[in-house]
Structure formats: structure tokens, C-alpha cells
Design goal:
about 110 residues; mainly beta
């Protein structure tokens, strides 16, 4: 499994880190033939309204993600990798809501 990438500074108190998907195929033989994915999703770190550390996760809309989780309702489209732009907006369970546009966090 490759190491995690460095954190991405999105501004406005938000950083992000790519998360990959690298299943143990000895334990999960049903996944044989499905490739690993270096950028399965994105963890977005921020502070919740009480000022405590919080993080949310978005799963990208990719071929492998659709194959592994065909019934997943929410996936994010990468409009641009560099600078990073995702759609739709991101809403954390803590209420933090915004967009990632041209590598920056833009509050909704």
C-alpha cells in the first residue's frame, strides 16, 4: 500500500488528504481482478462549529468505485485534478458546507 499523500491546504481552515483503496485479496478473493485505486476518495479536515477537529469523507465517482459499490448514492465528480475541483458541494455531518473549486474551499 502506498503511503498517504501530503495534506492539501484548501484554505479557510480546511485541508484534505487522498485515500486509496487497496484491499487484501487473500481475505477478499471476490475482489480479484479489480485494481487498486490511489485516489478512491478525499478526507476533508476542518473544525466543527464548536471549534473541535472534524473530518468528512467523499468518495470519488470512478470506474472502480462504481464497480465495488454499485448502490452507493453519493459520489463526487472530479471536474479538475489540478487545481482540484469537485462537484457537487460537500456537506459534513457537523454542518460544514462548501465547494472545492480550483483547489480552494469555498463556503456554501
Amino acid at each position: 500500500m502506498p503511503p498517504h499523500t501530503d495534506r492539501i491546504d484548501l484554505g479557510d481552515g480546511h485541508t484534505a488528504e487522498w485515500e486509496g483503496w487497496y484491499p487484501d485479496r487473500e481475505l477478499n478473493p471476490q475482489l480479484a481482478g479489480i485494481p487498486d485505486v490511489d485516489r478512491w476518495g478525499l478526507v476533508i479536515f476542518h473544525k466543527n462549529p464548536a471549534g473541535q477537529d472534524c473530518a468528512g469523507f467523499v468518495t470519488l465517482d470512478g470506474e472502480v468505485q462504481r464497480r465495488v459499490e454499485p448502490n452507493r448514492a453519493n459520489r463526487w465528480t472530479v471536474e479538475s485534478w489540478d487545481p482540484l475541483t469537485l462537484s457537487p458541494s460537500v456537506l459534513c455531518s457537523c454542518g460544514d458546507h462548501g465547494f472545492i473549486r480550483e483547489g480552494r474551499w469555498v463556503r456554501a
